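cron nightly-structures :: item 1 of 1
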Amino acid sequence: MAGVILIGTQGYNWLLNPFAYLFSKYWNEPILYIGDSPPDTLPANVDFLQVPAYAEGIWPWSHFFGNGLISICKHFEGKIITLFLLDHWLNRPVSLTDVGILTKYMDKNRHIIRANLTEQPCWQSANKIDNYSGLDIIYFPAWDIANSFSGGITFCPSLWNTDLLCEIIEPHWTIWECERLGTEKMKTRHDIISVGTMPALLSRVHGLYHDKYKMAYLAGLSVEDGEIVKSFIPEGWVCN
C-alpha cells in the first residue's frame, strides 16, 4: 500500500494549508503531496515529491494531466493508492479501519480499478456485490449514463489500482478527458470495474469553484472549520 497521495500544481498550492488542516483533524495520517513545485513551507503532516514526468517547470494539467498521473502510477507500480485533489476538504471523521479494509479488498480483487470513498446520490441504485469484513461493496457499470462517470473514472477521493489506471488514461489527456474519455474506454473493458461502499466512508466539501477565479466554497464545513479555513485563503478571494 502506498498511503495517501495528494496531487496538485503550483498554481493551487494555496489550497494545501486548508486541506492539510482538515485532513489532520478528520483522517490523521501523513500526506504525500506530489506536484511540480512545493510551497515555501509545508504543513507538518505533509511531505513533498516532484511529479516524475515534470522534474522541472509546471505540470500542465490543461493539456497533459494524464502524462503526470501516469508517471505517478508508474512510481507506485503494483500499489493501491489513496488519491485526493487539493480542493477535497474533509468535513467529518473518517474510519481508518474501514479505509484499510476497503484497501485490502481492492488488493485482493485486482480487477477493480477504483473504489470510491465519497457519497454519490446515484449510488443509492447500485447493486450490492459483496460484503467484506462488514463493508457492503456496491457496483454499477461504466456504461450506465445515469450515473455520470461514477461507474468509471472520476477524481473524487478514491482508492486506485495504479496498474489498471495506467492502462486506461492517455498521456495527452486533460483531467476532464481522463474522466470523460477514460470512462468511455472503460465501457470496452468488461474485465475491470469501479466500486464503492454503502454507506460511503467519507464526507467532503468541494472547496474550489473551478469555473470562477478566486472563489472558495465553505458551505458544508463547521463554523469552527470555516473560520480556520478562511485564515488560509489569500487576500481578495471570495468565500461562499
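cron nightly-structures :: done
Residues 4-210 form a domain with the Spore Coat Polysaccharide Biosynthesis Protein SpsA; Chain A fold (CATH 3.90.550).
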